Amino acid sequence: MATYDFIFDSLGLRSWCGEKTDATMSMADLLRSRSGQDLTIWELPFPSLDNLHDACPAIAQTRGLTSGLESGFLTVKDSLQFFLDPITQPLSWLLNGALATFDTVPWWLMIPALLVVVFIASKSWKLVSLVASFILFLAFIDHYDYAMQTLAIIFVCSFICVLFGVPIGIAMSRSDGLQRGIIPVLDMLQTLPPFVYLIPLIFLFSVTEPKLYGIAIILYAIVPVIRLTNLGIRLVDKDVIEAADAFGMTDQQKLYRVQVPLALPNIMAGVNQTIMMSLAMVVIASLVSAPGLGVLVLRGIRNLELGVGLVSGLGIVLLAIILDRVTKAALARVNTSQQ
Amino acid sequence: MSQEIKISIQHLYKIFGDDPETAIEHVRAGTGKADLLEQYAHVLGLQDINVDIVAGKITVIMGLSGSGKSTLIRHLNRLIEPTAGEVIVDGEDVLAYSEEQLRQLRREKMSMVFQKFALLPHRTVLENAATPLIVRGEDKDSATEEGHKWLERVGLQGNDNQHPHQLSGGMQQRVGIARALTSNSDIMLMDEAFSALDPLIRTDMQDLLLELQQELHKTIVFITHDLDEALKLADHLVILKDGYIVQQGEPQEILLHPNDPYIIDFISDINRARVLRVRSVMDQGKGKPDNLAGDVDADDNLESLIAKSEGDTQICYRVMSNGKQVGVLDMKDLVKALVPTSAPEGSERASY
């Protein structure tokens, strides 16, 4: 006897519902039938799909929803793959290329090259020496290869985030409608637990392909650069825009001569956030075969190797400090040059 | 002196709101600004504006904040689209212009100076001054050369490679003026250009503008809320209130014959002796009174004449213009002219 039998009986829907098969009995049913008591009002279950199904088998179970979603996804999967595979293939090439480059260039070339980049970005010897000491420390404790793999992935993913994020942000700043449409998507990308979009990605792409984790990282990290580009351009002083109009600038001149340069501090702040978020995601992405320090963290969790987990965690913190300081120093230079 | 009309504004209306087309019918039927806002939720920006702006002169549009003066000046280069009316520049209706023609107008015929300077903060002073030419696509060398020339002309030497934020407000506005001059346009629109500057700098800038104008003879439309500034600069003065023109004309004329309590209120505080000129208060004619004490120029202001007469009201002066006598000024008339037109009882000021 199910709780909601009376609804279907009184509505005369019994025949539509079909025969009940009492083959399975839940533990709760069993206990209730043993105690011989009827359900009191205090125990009335919510008329959910599962409870209604008990009374009327024609009504689907909640299990049907999730499995329906799954089979629906599986049916469109092939056609999705047909489109997405070729489009995303360059991402695999880029990631493989970057990983190979960071792997093959010997450390005595790589470290100085990185330090030169740091100097160009920050123009600060203090920062260069800090970065040098961090990298040398990581190399000294044999984490150099892992750290370089992580860096390679971050470079590629952040580059692609900026490549797509800035134009999307600019487009958003120019159209209120587009902004209204995109903001919920960005909100969703930011709030959805990153593990959740790993699942459909695993269905779509092979776990052996780097683009799988590449896409996961990009989806997660692209949000701030889009948001802050949009915000930065919208915040550009209206008076300056008006002056640009008054002197007859075309939309393109306005964009490249006024809006983007004036929004640059905000865009750079977005890039900084994007890099930090790719670093966070690259650790999670080690679940789907992303190489780097994340693999060590994962090993620490899986095998309960406390030391391995802690040291690789420290390595990630050091990388985070390096990336944050360097991008902030670059941002500060942009800021002082224009106020 | 030619009186060629450079810009003619005719029956210009601007109504802000969702449905200005319907609202304008109410305005034409006589609904005032306050009623329009209350009953139809539309803001009346400008109401039947008719102004002819003479080439080579300074036309000052004056009004308090909210009177629509900044809205009006933005109609001239269509930074704001009017609801109805015509703006005719050099015989062509600007409102019929395509986007491309409009851009051409803004690039070559009209330049603008802004209250908040609106310089490009990431560019050097020189690049800012050269902006109009760079925007037009001229090559960078000749553009910066021109920019440099005008920067020197407005008194900025050696600041070329600084950024705007390194300069004081007055200097920034000099860059703003240099930028407008670099475009070499006939028309300069100045939107409260000196209002953000402190009084001494403002006087300097006014003098600079007058000096430049003597040489360049641009058609200048100048917006201000400051009557002293308006009277100092204006060849033609337009006084706006709540979006309509209260009175327009030669400033001397407005000062001596204000036609509205609002204007009487406005002018009651100013130093009339400094603003009024001999030609406005003299008797026209070639008479030669006995107590003639000397010659004065028609464009001298009364203050200088009082100083010259050492306060003696018993004497007369012969008024000369271009070496010819144009009239006679009795010092008694001068003193009478200094008495302000009195504000009527219960005038506008009571309500402020």
Please describe the topology of this protein:
The complex is a heterodimer of chains A (339) and B (352).
Chain A: H1 5-11, H2 14-17, H3 27-35, H4 49-55, H5 62-104, H6 107-122, H7 125-140, H8 144-174, H9 176-191, H10 194-204, H11 210-234, H12 238-246, H13 251-284, H14 293-303, H15 306-338
Chain B: E1 5-16, H1 20-28, H2 33-40, E2 43-54, E3 58-62, H3 69-76, E4 84-89, E5 92-93, H4 99-108, E6 110-113, H5 125-136, H6 140-153, H7 169-182, E7 187-191, H8 199-216, E8 219-224, H9 227-233, E9 236-241, E10 244-249, H10 251-256, H11 261-267, H12 272-275, H13 278-281, E11 283-284, E12 292-297, H14 302-309, E13 316-321, E14 324-330, H15 331-337
Parallel strand pairs in B: 3-8, 3-9, 6-7, 7-8, 12-13
Antiparallel strand pairs in B: 1-2, 1-4, 4-5, 9-10, 11-14, 13-14
Helix pairs in contact in B: 5-6, 5-7, 6-7
Outline the structure in words.
The complex is a heterodimer of chains A (339) and B (352). By secondary structure, chain A is mainly alpha-helical. Helices cover 80% and strands 0% of the residues of chain A. The longest helix of chain A has 43 residues. Chain A starts with a helix and ends with a helix. Chain B is of the alpha/beta class and 352 residues long. Chain B contains 15 helices and 14 strands. In chain B, the strands form 3 sheets. Chain B has a 6-stranded mixed β-sheet with strand order 6-7-8-3-9-10, with helices on both faces. In chain B, α8 links the parallel β7 and β8. The C terminus of chain B is likely disordered. Chains A and B meet through α12 and α13 of A and α4, β6 and α5 of B.
